[in-house]
Specification:
flat; single chain; about 120 residues; mainly alpha
Length: about 120
């Protein structure tokens, strides 16, 4: 068995480091952190929202952990099926309004691929 000298990190690191501009610029990770910081802040505000229970402030996610641990698998599956069904309605409305554009794009695609 022949062992390759390059590991996955050895293959990816040069490719990841190529797009870096000058040493003073922000790295890709820093750029991603900066752009997604508002999203992370909003998510943190929702997940760690303090719910008053008696004299205590309990984060919202802890309440869902307790509910999730105390329910049956059947109830969880029914709830997930109901949420999937609830997502069908906005998707169908979007399809209804976008159908003419989808039809036009499909015709253009089929015309282009038949010529190949």
């Amino acid at each position: 068995m022949k062992v390759l000298p390059l590991t996955m990190g050895g293959l990816l690191f040069p490719l990841i480091s190529l797009p870096q501009e000058d040493p003073g610029s922000l790295s890709w990770g820093q750029r991603i952190d900066r752009e997604f910081q508002p999203v992370a802040d909003a998510w943190e505000a929702i997940v760690f929202y303090p719910v008053p229970v008696g004299d205590f402030q309990i984060p919202l996610f802890l309440i869902f952990v307790v509910i999730g641990a105390s329910t049956t698998l059947n109830a969880v599956i029914k709830f997930s099926d109901a949420m999937i069904l609830a997502l069908v309605f906005p998707n169908m409305i979007g399809l209804f309004f976008l159908f003419p554009k989808v039809r036009e794009e499909l015709k253009n695609y089929l015309k282009a691929t038949r010529g190949i």
